[in-house]
Amino acid sequence: MSEAMHCPLCAGREIVQFHEDRRRPYLRCGDCALVFVPPAYHLSREAERAEYDLHQNRVEDEGYRKFLSRLALPLATRLAPGARGLDFGCGPAPALACMLGEAGYSVALYDSFYRPDPDVLRGPYDFICATEVVEHLHRPGAELARLWALLEPGGWLGLMTKLVRDQAAFASWHYKNDPTHVCFFSAQTWQWWARQQRTPLEIVGADVILLGPR
Fold it and tell me: Is position 10 within any domain?
């Protein structure tokens, strides 16, 4: 492991090996508990896009909508009527934005591959959603800080990502096998991040994270 290795979330340097499989190693930060894949094992942008193009999500897919409702429903109970939001990492089928639009909210779209519009990253927003996104981020510290800064006072950040439980469970965890997944958060990681922002944290169910109000 390189002496220059640092955590992509908190920049900590207390890094230990957490797991290794036949494809890549997984490191863990001693400060924020993020588990991450070293940059040398990240896919190229072209290979990453090719993986995303294999996804078959559709806006009208009821199963997909039910999955996204695990974030949409608890978030909506915290929003004022007509709140303005951003679906960050919306992909080619922005079903969550459509669902929230049907509920009366205005939702801008951003995705670095499918909707790379820098203008929408100027904000501000009343809420920001990122479903199954943060595990793909090569620079999660910078990206989360940018999203948090785009929120109005009182705004909400809503995320969906599966959480690391422990080292033994990680070894057989299917979630780590996706080659585009390079960052793995635990409840401990989100608790650390919420403390840095001095904001409340709520983990809903197994994989929904609500941060706010800002």
Answer: no
Residue 96, domain member (yes or no) = yes
Does residue 6 sit within a domain?
Answer: no
What HEC string does 112-134 produce?
A: CCCECCHHHHHCCEEEEEEECCH
C-alpha 202: how far from its chain's center? 15
Question: In the chain, how many domains are there?
Answer: 1
Q: What is the pLDDT of residues 66-103, one digit of tens each?
A: 999 999 999 999 999 999 999 999 999 899 999 999 99
User: Does the pLDDT of residue 2 top 80, yes or no?
Assistant: no
Q: Would 116 be classed as within a structural domain? A: yes
CA angle 86, 196, 199 (to 5 degrees): 60
The CA distances from residue 85 to 36, 91, 110, 125, in Å, are 29, 16, 11, 5
What is the extent of the structural domain holding 79? 15-211
Q: Is the pLDDT of residue 123 over 90?
A: no
Question: 198 or 3, which is more confident?
Answer: 198
CATH number of the domain encompassing residue 135 = 3.40.50
* Partner residues linked to 20 by β-bridges: 25
